[in-house]
Amino acid sequence: MRKVILITGSSRRRVGFHLGKHLIDNGYQVVLHGLNNWELGEQIAEELGEHACFEAADITCDKQVAELVMRITERFGCIDGLVTLASVWNPTPLRDLTAEQIRKQLMVNALGTVLCAQKVGMQMVKQVSGGAIVTVGDWAVDRPYTGYISYFLSKGGLDTATKALAVELAALNENIRVNCIHPGNILFPDDLSPEKRSEIQTLTPTHWVNDPLDFCRAVLFLLENRMTTGTSVKLDSGRSLV
């Protein structure tokens, strides 16, 4: 029987699509998630085949996250894994910063991550087999660049949240684990210029960029390794070292 995994923020042909395919190839039943891209999300799920489906929900809303978890468990009987890819990455230059800009990114990147981990985690508590949660941060939380203070504020607390969730959930069910990945440039934005792509690659010590497969492998490792919990892994080809 295939394990069931929810991947938030996976309604576009981006990292979530590649992760979904990789997990299906490794024996998982994948639930893709999005909020605004319903048609594309359903199209991607159909493309991935019988072991994928799509669900919509606002991850900043308690009720909608609870209903999302309920729909998945009613359909499959359990949730074995969660990967929190849903994220907002908008520029917020310091001189133009507003409370609303901060609030929007905190709501999705921080609150949304914790709400999903909480609701899915409490379902995992009921399961003898427990489950595994992988939160997704960013390599640059320790090396922030200009213009994205709201983003870094919202991602910067995920290390602490991951550790706290790991302790809280393991106290309720010893078979639940929570870990965090801080990815680097695993998949360039579609509109990134060739010049910028080359610059990023040059700045990266190993020059290995724009390939989501190693991210997918890292997620699979954290989902399946029984001795790993409360940890954070940088997956940035050494970018944070320079």
Summarize the structure.
By secondary structure, the chain is of the alpha/beta class.
From the alpha-carbon coordinates, what is the Rg to the nearest angstrom?
17 Å
Secondary-structure element pattern, one letter each: EHEHEHEHEHHEHHE
How many structural domains are formed by the residues? 1
Q: Mean of residue pLDDT?
A: 96
List low-confidence stretches. Answer: none
Query: Which term fits the overall shape?
Result: globular
Q: Would you spell out the secondary-structure blueprint of this structure?
A:
Elements: E1 3-8, H1 15-25, E2 28-34, H2 38-48, E3 52-56, H3 62-76, E4 81-84, H4 99-125, E5 131-136, H5 149-156, H6 158-172, E6 176-183, H7 194-203, H8 213-224, E7 232-235
Parallel strand pairs: 1-2, 1-4, 2-3, 4-5, 5-6, 6-7
Question: What does this protein look like?
Answer:
With 242 residues, the protein is of the alpha/beta class. It has one domain (3-241): Rossmann fold (3-Layer(aba) Sandwich). Helices cover 45% and strands 17% of the residues. The chain has a seven-stranded parallel beta sheet, sandwiched between helices. Strand 1 (3-8), helix 1 (15-25) and strand 2 form a beta-alpha-beta unit.
Keywords for this entry:
about 240 residues; alpha/beta; 8 helices; Rossmann fold; seven-stranded parallel sheet; 7 strands
